[in-house]
Description:
It is a single chain. By secondary structure, the chain is of the alpha/beta class. Helices cover about 25% and strands about 25% of the residues. It contains 8 helices and 16 strands. A hairpin with a 4-residue loop joins strand 8 and strand 9 (about 140-145). Helix 2 packs across helix 3. It is elongated. Flavin-adenine dinucleotide binds near residues 237, 238, 272, 291 and 294.
Amino acid sequence: xxGEIWVLAEHWQGQIxxxxxxxxxxxxxxxxxxxxxxxxVLLGHGKKDLAGALGAADRxxxxxxxxxxxxxxxxxxxxxEELVRSKKPKAVLVPLSNVTLxxxxxxxxxxxxxxxxxxxxxxxxxxxxxxxxxxxxxxxxATVTAAGDPTILGISPxxxxxxxxxxxxxxxxxxxxxTLPDEPKVRFKRYIEPEAGDIDICEQEALVSVGRGxxxxxxxxxxxxLAEALGGAVSGSRPVIDQGWLPMSRQVGKSGASVKPKFxxxxxxxxxxxxxxGMKGAALIVAINTDPKAPIFNVAHYGIEADALDVxxxxxxxxxxxxxx
Length: 325
Ligand SMILES: Cc1cc2nc3c(=O)[nH]c(=O)nc-3n(C[C@H](O)[C@H](O)[C@H](O)COP(=O)(O)OP(=O)(O)OC[C@H]3O[C@@H](n4cnc5c(N)ncnc54)[C@H](O)[C@@H]3O)c2cc1C
């Protein structure tokens, strides 16, 4: 039987990325269902200590090479190819983020292997890996059964809770040598920090998010008042940002930020896939929309079919009353 389930461990600025834990949780389920092991692959230079965080895996393969100091796709795919050819895993789960995007596809192309990208879930059906994949920005869903080993699976953020992939156990670490060119064609040169100045919506516990349904820049104030009462911040959908009602740093969604607050209120937001992609991980989602058929109600835990311009001030008054203001 072909080997184990592998997860490529993504790291960024000296830390294992959250998406790695999500993918480890998924990998653990698959390995258990197939009765095989879950192994993590950590590629880096001087990063062996990071392996300690990968306790959800039964074993960590660590490759150390100067070309792997940053997760450049060319070097990572070359290192993985050598490992995959020698150890023959059944599947390689690669996180799909702006750091690791491209590694899985390049690996599959090098190996002539099956590659399924943009997976939001993977399960086992008749002993085979079956992936649910969202295409065209979430407008089309495909269910794909993998044929042949190894299968390379690009996993989108949010497939499992982060905590499900964290484990206190210290995994055995096996250092493996690979042959890589010292001067890769593609080199990571530097990371340019986004300009500071605004709050980080990803760090807020409560977000009051407004969409086109808020109707004017002046009405954003209604959301601001509620956000302040809740101790959170205002964010928005793309049309709100495009019209200049909120700065770019407040955009939630595919071309904005992915947020996971404890509370997300979507006011006058239709729930387009590009928006939902960035907020579906929120713990509690409440939507206010005048249209009962708005897709946002499909992801909301609670829905209010009403005019946001009426509901926002009413909620603000209620929150202030509860807090004794
Ligand atoms: C490549 C690409 C990337 C994209 N990236 C993003 C992204 O990062 N983030 C993003 O948000 N979008 C993004 N989009 C755009 C996305 O497809 C939608 O167009 C957008 O999310 C719609 O925003 P909206 O819900 O505010 O507006 P609309 O779709 O116009 O919805 C407005 C909603 O408000 C409701 N409404 C109207 N009046 C009221 C009222 N008084 N009270 C309550 N409800 C009311 C309406 O019923 C409607 O449901 C992207 C699109 C593409 C193609």
